Amino acid sequence: MNTFEANRRHRVLVIDDTPAIHEDFRKTLAVSEPTDKGLLDMESELFGVSAPEPDLGSFSVDFASQGREGVDMAVRAKAEELPYALAFVDGRMPPGMDGIETIRELWQSCPDLQIVLCTASADYSWRGIQTVLGTSDNLVILKKPFDTMEVLQLTHALTRKWALSREIKGRLYKLAYYDSLTDLPNRTFFLDRLEYLLKTNKRYGHTGALLFLDLDAFKRINDSLGHGVGDELLKVISLRMLDCLRGMVPVVRLDSGDMAARLGGDEFAVILSNLEQPDTAANVALRITEHLARPITVGSHQVSVTSSIGITLFPQDGEDVETLMKNADLAMYNAKRRGPNAFLFYRDFMNVTVRKRLALEHHLRRAIAENELSLHYQPQINLTTGQVVGLEALLRWDNPELGMIPPLEFIPIAEENGLIISIGEWVLRAACTQAKAWLDQGVPLPRVGVNIALSQLIHGGFLAMVDDVLAETTLPPRLLEMEITESMLMSDPDGVARVLHKLRERGIKVAIDDFGTGYSSLGRLRDLPIDCLKIDRCFIRGISMGMRDEPILNAMIGMAAALDLRVVAEGVESAGQVDFLRSSHCPEVQGFLFSHPLSASQAEIFLRDNSRARE
């Protein structure tokens, strides 16, 4: 609705103790067409635009005989969200409040109300009015007697001024308190609401909930598909959150307390103002994760977005906004570590977890410079000949203060904060440098495998970095095998495929690690430049344990043979597992039964001994 349409049915209040005056106003503001085109010309000149001819019968006019009655009507109209735009107030209304007193009280509850003070020449001086009411552009003095044209002109000009002022204030309010992309309340609005509810819930003994939501790996979508696609996804996600909350009625009421907000980037929050049971917050979190996980089509792309949610209850989990937000973030972080679409309530022990994480992150940022990283190498063995057919380079971190930190603890942190890019480059350079040194020393080395994270693979400078490392170390590309997980094929299929083809053009081999856990399609595997499938250890562990993994293993080995792919069975630890894999014609194995990961010097001895044993 535009500004001029918005003035239709503006409400006008006439406060005057004379019934005949009421009737005059009713007749004046209820005419069906303009009595003088000069009115429209004056409005056009006043606002600097060509105003369309208005419907002069569009005002809703109410009447009060005394000031107190008029003030009560204005307060009630505002509470009902049907405020008056303009009030005509008589200067003298004995025995009640006079016009100045009435205006003062009107403005206390309705400060934007436009007012025309109708007064005889001798009633008030301008200085006297300013002394009581101050200087305001919401007040016009109309001297009695007045005619129809004056009333009409003032009514149209002042109601339109009121509407324009409210529209501008509304736009400024939206800019200040709403997110421009999603139209959800922004961080400022959210924090104000949370602070208010925290105080009121504590005062009245109510329980509320804060749900802190972060989208999993959303940065990858922006990096691979572009920020335009990312913005469209955020819009869809916002709508789904609102639909989800509305669908919980009457469990969740989107009233003056409840709120869904975008805090910035891919972070969202939900406030549930008054819960009868904490389980309600869990039900809302579950519903949100399910709604957001449904595939989203943006242009030619279909994307699935998962989320992690941390839940805090207030005032139990924090008596101030900062503490509550910190604890919700802690709960979200712990939920994210559990995998996609997880949610967790805050618990005190999470503070210990996050302190440990912060310490790891702090030391990890200095690990390369402090020379704390190293590589170990685990041999891969041909099951028929017993010959070493490759080594997998495995990252190790030994910190002087924290000791030896398992990769499962620090690799996820490196991926979350972007350190995996520099760490991954260090790993590739160190592995290629060591492999080339072995070759120069006559140590037999068929290939060396290096694990690559998705954020590395889709990073814009990845291929240039690979070229630099190979040129610097002069390692033949055919001796390098890059290992990616099967789930990476599903996260960004097109982006990963483009990079894999570029690696193939350089003569670098590609292996799919943890195969069997990522639900990739056979058609996808057939079309990608892949050399090897590494069967995940969870299937090997189930051999001879009644876990029905043996038929699956046979199928995977047979499928790989049909696609002319090498197969490596990971995590082989027993002779029984070897017997089964040999009978199933699995060509290569890797695991503790043959060798634990070895330091570079130990790996060199292993390679030389294995070569001599084959002679």
Radius of gyration, whole Å: 37 Å
Count of individual helical segments:
24
Strands, total number: 21
Largest sheet composition: 8 strands, mixed, barrel
**N-to-C CA distance:** 88 Å
Q: Which CATH first-tier class of the largest domain would you pick?
A: Alpha Beta
Low-confidence runs: 1-7, 32-36, 46-57, 249-255
Strand content of the residues, in percent? 15-25%
**Structural domains: how many:** 3
Arithmetic mean pLDDT: 86
Across the major sheet, the strand order is 13-14-16-17-18-19-20-21
Helix content class: 40-55%
Name of the CATH superfamily of the largest domain? EAL domain
Write structural notes for this entry.
Helix 4 (67-79) runs parallel beside helix 5 (99-109), helix 10 packs across helix 11 (279-293) and helix 13 crosses helix 14. The protein has 3 domains: 3-177, Response regulator (Rossmann fold); 187-348, Alpha-Beta Plaits (2-Layer Sandwich), CATH 3.30.70.270; 358-614, Alpha-Beta Barrel (TIM Barrel). It is 48% helix and 20% strand. The protein has 24 helices and 21 strands. An 8-stranded mixed barrel has the order 13-14-16-17-18-19-20-21, surrounded by 4 helices. The termini are far apart. The chain is an alpha/beta fold.
Q: What secondary-structure arrangement, pairings included, does this model have?
A:
Blueprint: H1 3-6, E1 11-15, H2 19-29, H3 38-47, E2 60-64, H4 67-79, E3 84-90, H5 99-109, E4 114-119, H6 126-133, E5 139-143, H7 148-177, H8 187-204, E6 208-215, H9 218-225, H10 227-246, E7 259-264, E8 267-272, H11 279-293, E9 296-298, E10 301-303, E11 307-314, H12 321-337, E12 342-345, H13 350-364, E13 373-382, E14 388-399, E15 403-405, H14 407-417, H15 420-440, E16 448-451, H16 454-457, H17 462-473, E17 480-485, H18 486-491, H19 493-505, E18 509-515, H20 522-527, E19 532-535, H21 537-541, H22 550-562, E20 566-570, H23 575-583, E21 588-590, H24 600-614
Parallel strand pairs: 1-2, 1-3, 3-4, 4-5, 11-12, 14-16, 16-17, 17-18, 18-19, 19-20, 20-21
Antiparallel strand pairs: 6-8, 6-11, 7-8, 9-10, 13-14, 13-21, 14-15
Helix pairs in contact: 3-7, 4-5, 9-10, 10-11, 12-13, 13-14, 15-17
